[in-house]
Amino acid sequence: MAEKILELKNLSYKTGGKQILQGLDLQIDSNQIVGLLGANGAGKTTLMRIITGVAKNYKGTVDVLGQENETFRKENISYNAQLVPDFSLGTKGSEVLRFYTSVYPDFNSDKFLTISEYLDVKLDNKLGKMSKGEIARLSMALVFSRTVPLYLLDEPFEGIDSMTRKRITDTIIKWKEPDATVIFSDHYLNDISNLLDDIVIIKDSEIIEHLPAEQIRSQYGQTIEEFYESKY
């Protein structure tokens, strides 16, 4: 039986008088790759920030492996948007590696070096000299070198070329932990649709669909992208 990795109950979030998320209920099991879909401003990034414990003052509950405690959640989630932006532009990739090795007990430096080599990340380069694509590749190496049950990927393909997107997709398949779940938000549906087990669509502050990808193909006779576009 699949283990429940993430559960949201009646989750709502408002900021600046604007309702971003309203009454979200969601359950995600282990060993899943889930597409979190929605238009710009739909609340996808906000939801990921709430799950990781970065965004505060929400209503409702967020459980990871049955635990609501924020410290526990942070220890068991690897989130790409929290990585490279925290370092100065003069920081080398090798220095980022040393930091992660010292801070995260679950960080596997050998795995990091293997993924970095596969993704052609030059660890002697400073972050300020890296292209968007190289920053994205470095972030993926950092994300998947942690041994956690839940990986959150927020727009990992933004501003990068198709070859880099292909390499990042391969990284997800090869190096996520066997029973771990990946929640993936991106607009490049053609690049990720074959990976997805489930899709979750957010619209008008609510989850309007949560379906297996195979059901969309068999029952509705549509691609993931066609089904998503039909909801918008």
List keywords for this structure.
single chain; 232 residues; alpha/beta; Rossmann fold; six-stranded mixed beta sheet; three-stranded antiparallel beta sheet; 9 helices; 26% strand; globular
Mean pLDDT: 91
What is the ordering of alpha helices and beta strands?
EEEHEHEHHHEHEHEEHH
Shape, per Cα inertia axes = globular
- In spatial order, strands of the major sheet run 5-6-7-3-8-9
Report the portion of residues in β strands. 25-35%
Number of strands: 9
Any guess at the CATH architecture? 3-Layer(aba) Sandwich
Q: What is the CATH topology classification name?
A: Rossmann fold
Tally the structural domains.
Answer: 1
Main sheet makeup = 6 strands, mixed
Discrete helix count: 9
Helix content: 25-40%
CATH class: Alpha Beta
CATH superfamily: P-loop containing nucleotide triphosphate hydrolases
| Cα-based radius of gyration, to the nearest Å | 17 Å
Distance between the termini: 34 Å
Q: Name the poorly predicted regions.
A: none
| Secondary-structure-derived class | alpha/beta
Give structural notes:
The protein is of the alpha/beta class. It has a single domain, classed as Rossmann fold (3-Layer(aba) Sandwich), CATH 3.40.50. Helix content is 35%, strand content 26%. The protein has 9 helices and 9 strands. A 6-stranded mixed beta sheet has the order 5-6-7-3-8-9, sandwiched between helices. A 3-stranded antiparallel beta sheet has the order 2-1-4, with helices on one face. Helix 6 links the parallel strand 6 and strand 7. Helix 4 runs antiparallel to helix 5 and helix 5 runs parallel beside helix 6. The two termini are 34 Å apart. The mean pLDDT is 91.
